[in-house]
Amino acid sequence: MYRFLLSRQWVILTLVAVLLIPTMIRLGFWQMHRYEERTARNDLVASALEASPVPVESLTAPGERITTRERYRTVTAKGRFDTDREVVVRRRTDSDDNIGYHVLTPFVLNDGKVLLVNRGWIPADGPSQTVFPKVPAPPRGELTLTGRLMPDETTEASGIKDLQGLPDRQVMLINSEQQAERLDARVLGGYVVLKTPEPRNGTPEPIGSPGDENAALNFAYAIQWWLFAAAVPVGWWFLVRREKRDRETAEDVRPAEAEPAAV
């Protein structure tokens, strides 16, 4: 009755179905793992953003790496901006994906250490990208700033190539070790995205808060893969039943077609 299942066509179809089921189940578990990872990151980011501000030197020091738990923490620092040794970070985009620069300004603390401060985005609308762009000045004198603590950028983590031979005072990555060598100073590990004081006239354009990763989408994909896995045997059985029915119908019709016409 089901001997057709031993045909080459049906053996291949059955093997494909057998392989698809565990593959789809594994893909569902992978998406669920991604959902859990993203949910955990979202919780960590939310917790960091909601935490009370702390002095920057309580979380970092020269040569120190910023951990995942310290990332996005709001920190405070007291000192002054050193615009004479300011640099710009190339190939950065604003909220509308326009290409420009991030303004990276050393902030000299009262104890002489240096904190790297990303003051925001400016457009690359100068006459040449080899010329240092016009950068709005920060407030003068001693002040207290607040910002979000971020880890050093690396090519491995960001995918940005650290190009050499750039124009003067232009860099590709925000990296405290590189800047410590350039400035010949004790630079705190990581850098800070400036929150306050806010720039005058909105320039440089402030960098927005990190958004939530879409963890719900991964959860939906996991359910989708598992539904696909459940649908494979159902679809296979439906095809088997239809094949059996078609063969039975063909067998019933064949004798009638072979019967000789009445004289």
Secondary structure layout:
Blueprint: H1 8-50, E1 54-55, E2 74-81, E3 87-93, E4 99-109, E5 114-123, E6 143-150, H2 155-158, E7 170-171, H3 176-183, E8 191-196, H4 215-258
Parallel strand pairs: 1-2, 3-7, 5-8
Antiparallel strand pairs: 2-4, 2-6, 3-4, 4-5, 6-8
Helix pairs in contact: 1-4
Describe the structure.
The protein is built from 4 helices and 8 strands. It has helices spanning 8-50, 155-158, 176-183, 215-258, and strands at 54-55, 74-81, 87-93, 99-109, 114-123, 143-150, 170-171, 191-196. A 5-stranded mixed barrel has the order 2-4-5-8-6. A hairpin with a 4-residue loop joins strand 4 and strand 5.
Q: What amount of the residues lies in strands?
A: 15-25%
Structural class: alpha/beta
Put simply, the count of helices is: 4
Low-confidence stretches: none
Organism: Streptomyces violaceorubidus
Keywords: Cell membrane, Membrane, Transmembrane, Transmembrane helix
Protein name: SURF1-like protein
Subcellular location: Cell membrane; Membrane
Task: Give the structure's gist in a few sentences.
The protein is of the alpha/beta class and 263 residues long. The protein is built from 4 helices and 8 strands; from the N terminus they run αββββββαβαβα. A 5-stranded mixed barrel has the order 2-4-5-8-6.
Tags for this model:
263 residues, alpha/beta, five-stranded mixed barrel, 4 helices, 21% strand, membrane
